[in-house]
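User: Can you recover a sequence for this backbone? Please restate the input before giving your answer.

Assistant: Of course. Working from this structure:
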């Protein structure tokens, strides 16, 4: 019996190689698309987290800075005083800052205006000290619970005299994980102990400018008339520009003429949150090159290539409480 030859045949080696190559190309394309989409999701998530951190940082700083110079109604009529620390009266202002400075307790409670080299700020960041009182009732001295510290906790330590002030200090320090963070330092009035706690990780630069009225950089101020006590600021200066060398009284008067505070921060996401490690655009803490200064390293632009997403946040707080009669 004769059988007809079969018309079915197998793949040749060339056809097999072509098919495998096409399959590999399709697989690689799918994997690449998956990786890109995952990176996109990470970037979107990181951007959202950085925005939330920026919003929280600005909210807490605005709230605390607005408290600067607040006096309990019982003492508000008398503004000519310093503040009390361990029963010693020192003429320190309600708002005071230090350029390129990390937290140093001697700077916070002392009268010095010079930042030691050992206390230079992380990435050139600045430090801000805010002082204020707690409002309380006339009878019994019960706190009205309207004031908070930089951690957001309600302050309840009522003052016994017009010289007692509470502290909230904002600065940048590295956490135990090595991440820079916006830090809050305050004094626990119940124990007398100073406490520091990170507020937000990933804040790598904090820059502060002070809106002043009738202040010339590093110059003793002239006397103002009563009609010019609370005008709008006419210029913005760094903390070190308010210092009059060898004249603490003049320096403190300059600080009392601060009418507003401009904050600039740079926040970053986790490693790998940026879609590329290539150098990005220049990052200015205040968002504008106009506020950059060679005398203030922290305001200089950064173009890191560490694969981290970065965002700037800047805002201005106008002080609502009189800082002095000067």
């Amino acid at each position: 019996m004769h059988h007809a030859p079969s018309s079915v045949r197998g793949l040749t080696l060339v056809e097999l190689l072509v098919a495998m190559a096409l399959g590999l190309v399709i697989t690689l394309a799918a994997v690449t698309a998956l990786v890109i989409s995952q990176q996109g999701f990470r970037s979107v998530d990181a951007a959202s987290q950085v925005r939330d951190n920026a919003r929280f940082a600005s909210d807490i700083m605005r709230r605390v800075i607005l408290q600067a110079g607040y006096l309990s109604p019982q003492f508000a009529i008398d503004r000519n005083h310093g503040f009390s620390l361990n029963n010693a009266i020192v003429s320190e202002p309600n708002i005071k800052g230090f350029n390129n400075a990390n937290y140093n307790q001697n700077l916070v409670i002392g009268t010095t205006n010079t930042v030691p080299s050992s206390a230079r700020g992380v990435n050139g960041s600045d430090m801000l000290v805010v002082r204020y009182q707690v409002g309380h009732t006339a009878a019994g001295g019960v706190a009205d619970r309207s004031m908070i510290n930089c951690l957001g906790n309600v302050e309840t330590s009522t003052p016994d005299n017009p010289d007692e002030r509470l502290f909230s200090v904002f600065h940048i320090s590295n956490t135990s994980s090595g991440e820079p963070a916006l830090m809050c330092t305050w004094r626990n009035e119940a124990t007398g102990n100073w406490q520091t706690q990170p507020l937000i990780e990933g804040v790598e630069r904090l820059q502060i400018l002070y809106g002043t009225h009738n202040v010339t950089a590093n110059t003793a101020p002239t006397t103002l008339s009563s009609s010019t006590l609370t005008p709008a600021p006419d210029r913005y200066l760094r903390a070190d520009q308010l210092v009059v060398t060898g004249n603490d009284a003049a320096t403190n008067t300059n600080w009392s003429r601060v009418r507003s505070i401009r904050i600039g921060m740079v926040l970053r996401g986790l490693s790998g949150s940026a879609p590329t490690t290539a150098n990005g655009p220049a990052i200015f803490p205040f968002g504008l090159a106009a506020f950059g200064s060679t005398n203030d390293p922290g305001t200089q632009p950064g173009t890191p290539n560490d694969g981290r997403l970065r965002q700037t946040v800047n805002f201005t707080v106008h002080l609502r409480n009189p800082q002095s009669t000067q």
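That completes the design. Residues 101 and 117 are 9 Å apart (CA to CA).
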